[in-house]
Specification:
39% of the residues lie in helices and 13% in strands. It is built from 12 helices and 12 strands. Bound molecules: pyridoxal-5'-phosphate. The site of pyridoxal-5'-phosphate has 16 residues, from helix 3.
Length: 402
């Protein structure tokens, strides 16, 4: 039997009654594929075959598709196409970044923030297992790396500093240029995981101060399973994968051409729409937060920090995050508890714990993240459902004589 996944474009239709049912508010986990991205990928998959490494014209056509996409991705972050290494996603880009500047070097120190994505934290743990000293840079209550942490932990022995541009859970934005100054004064390489920032903020590789920057396509309405590491060509990088010399030897393996093409189109759209997306999402988030502010039982995290326009992480006192997530899911509303990669485990978010949030409060956290398809009706729906849950708790409490 041939397994066929269920298909169907994600669209809202009044006609088939799905308009109110598909309330997707989990854009930091992944974004739906943009229509032009899908069209370009289908055209690529339906097109002539060819391995981009082949010298015949079939191969050259595929190579040209990759070249065009490399230019689109480079433009999104103001870099040169030759600075882009395509990877299988943000996770691989982060692994490659940490590996590329430490492999074959005498073990020294690596500083990473305590609120990084697991693909940085666990790679750092692996480095620790091989003799490197890992310094965790602490954050304040608003999820921002502190000056004290930078002063204390970035030393002349530090070889690499890795701090994300925007946090996937709270949306808090770090001052990468200032952190990079600390790194460069110490002679260390600066890496930033810009997976959540790119497409949502204006990001320029050179101005960021970072020498390595990780990107992921599926956070910018492109396909899953493709990403990139943007690099400063003055660096000597050790690859993770060896083989056929693809990606100028930095990442061997026949390229995921359709994925790369989709990523390229998504990058071009992101560049065109970044400012309008930002303004629309920030306005919707303001409506959401104004609605949440009506309930004293609700805490919004990192609200004083400069944040991504689309992200709200909150906890409702008295309700466990997983329970609230399930209740919202029953009402057709998709949100996340903690980061997507760690949901499923009922442990409090390491990000909130690093911010000094009590474990009992952190366990109650959910993340609502908005995107291009989010409407005012979605915001009203999620506020309405949260309000109903709170009423229910109050009634249950009264009945039980709490
Ligand atoms: C900040 C951050 N970095 C890295 C990743 C991993 O990216 P990918 O899913 O492309 O491997 C994610 C995914 O959630 C993320 O949010």
């Amino acid at each position: 039997m041939i397994f066929r996944p269920q298909t169907g474009l994600w669209s809202r239709s009044e006609a088939d009654g799905t308009a109110g049912m598909k309330c997707y508010l989990d854009y930091n986990a992944t974004t739906p594929l943009a229509g032009p991205v899908r069209d370009a990928m289908l055209a690529c998959m339906d097109g002539l075959p060819g391995n981009p490494s082949s010298t015949h014209q079939f191969g050259r056509m595929r190579r040209a598709m990759i070249d065009a996409a490399r230019e689109q991705v480079a433009q999104l972050v103001g870099a040169q196409p030759s600075q882009v290494i395509f990877t299988s996603g943000g996770t691989e880009a982060n692994n490659l970044a940490l590996h590329a500047v430490t492999a074959g070097q005498a073990a020294g120190r690596v500083a990473v923030s305590s609120v990084e994505h697991p693909s940085v934290l666990e790679t750092a743990q692996h480095l620790a297992d091989t003799g490197w000293q890992i310094d965790l840079l602490g954050v304040d209550t608003q999820c921002r790396v502190t000056e004290e942490a930078l002063q204390q932990h970035i030393t002349m022995d530090t070889r690499l500093v890795s701090v994300m541009m925007a946090n996937n859970e709270t949306g808090a934005i770090q001052n990468i240029a200032s952190i990079a100054e600390y790194a460069h004064k110490a002679g260390a390489v600066m890496h930033t995981d810009a997976v959540q920032a790119v497409g949502r903020l204006a990001v320029n590789f050179a101005d960021s101060g970072a020498q390595l920057m990780s990107l992921s396509s599926h956070k910018i309405y492109g396909p899953q399973g493709i990403g990139a590491l943007v690099f400063d060509k003055a660096l000597e990088l050790t690859p993770l994968l060896y083989g056929g010399g693809q990606e100028r030897g930095y990442r061997a393996g026949t390229e995921n051409v359709a994925g790369i093409v989709g990523f390229g189109v998504a990058a071009e759209l992101a560049l065109q729409q970044q400012v309008s997306d930002y303004e629309r999402l920030r306005d919707l988030r303001e409506v959401l937060e104004a609605g949440l502010a009506r309930y004293p039982q609700i805490t919004v995290f990192a609200q004083q920090a400069d944040r991504l326009p689309n992200t709200v992480q909150l906890a409702v006192r008295g309700i466990d995050g997983e329970t609230l997530l399930m209740q919202l899911d029953r009402a057709g509303i998709a949100v996340s508890s903690g980061s997507a990669c760690s949901s499923g485990k009922n442990e409090p978010s390491h990000v909130l714990l690093a911010m000094g949030v009590e474990p009992a409060v952190a366990r109650g956290a959910i993340r609502i993240s908005l995107g291009r398809e989010t409407t005012r009706q979605d915001i009203d729906a999620v506020l309405n459902q949260i309000g109903q849950q709170l009423q229910w708790i109050q009634k249950a409490g009264q009945a039980a004589g709490w």
